[in-house]
Design a protein that fits this description.
This protein is mainly alpha-helical. Helix content is about 40%, strand content about 5%. It has a single domain, classed as Glycosyltransferase (Alpha/alpha barrel). Strands 1-2-3 form a 3-stranded antiparallel beta sheet, with helices on both faces. The longest helix is centred in the first third of the chain and has 24 residues. This is Endoglucanase.
Amino acid sequence: MERICVFVCGVLLLMSTASVGWEQKHDYKLALSTSLLFFEGQRSGKLPPNQRLTWRKDSALRDGQEGGVDLTGGYYDAGDNVKYSFPMAFTATMLAWSIIEFGDGMAMGNEWINAAEALRWNTDFLLKATAHLPNTVYAMVGNPNSDHICWERPEDMETPRPVYAVNTAHPGSEVAGEIAAALAAASIAFKTYDAAYSQRLLSKAKQADYILGSNPMGMSYMVGYGPKFPQHVHHRAASLPSVNAHPSFIACGDGFSYLNRPNPNMNELTGAIVGGPNSGTDNFADDRRQSAQTEPTTYVNAPFVGVFAYFVNHKK
């Protein structure tokens, strides 16, 4: 996770001078469409008829019931089955600004609708998280401790789904502020393009190219892009057999045999950008037990949607 988190936290920092010599032509239109497909693999709730990753099914349809509210929908942010409002809001913010700044590139690749749907799936949940009680924001659904003792498909979840809120008695200005920022950005994205966002998401093509395969390993860190990409992604739903292939219930502890097996994942989480190699060494272990290197997240993918859209229009 270290190297790619450096890109994201610094909004794609410059690569080292050692990468300058790697010259490859990449299909940014394909990278854009693939990066957006990942979000459909992270969906929680009742899936729509146009769901493209068909190995995912409805899940967590009772989220919020323990608190007497409706908190269905939204995204599982990473490879587990907990929903966190803060990273979900950050994901929405990044997607919104990607649409605002680079919507023309998305339109060229016929991906604007997919980007808007990815954003809308997110903001619909954020509206639910802020709609039920005055001065209350629901910050989390699910319990990380109970979730992490299981390796289980979201469709099979049998772990508790408590809800956690921030309010005047239990303040949490960070999540409230990030949700406000996400909704404000999304309102612009759905209305018009506004040139308020600079190239903070962008740098030189080399950063995107590194992830797409221009690196010492000669490996794409986006699942489904290029001839060589991670096969052992740290992701419950992708590593376990799909409901289509294995309709019977897989209990909480039974999934660990899939976590620990050496075989590639049962399902391809197309478009997922994984944590990537160790910082400074470029060594990458394609091992789903190495979550720092092989776990994908929505908030890693989101910034690159804008990057790929930009380079659709600005090929080097």
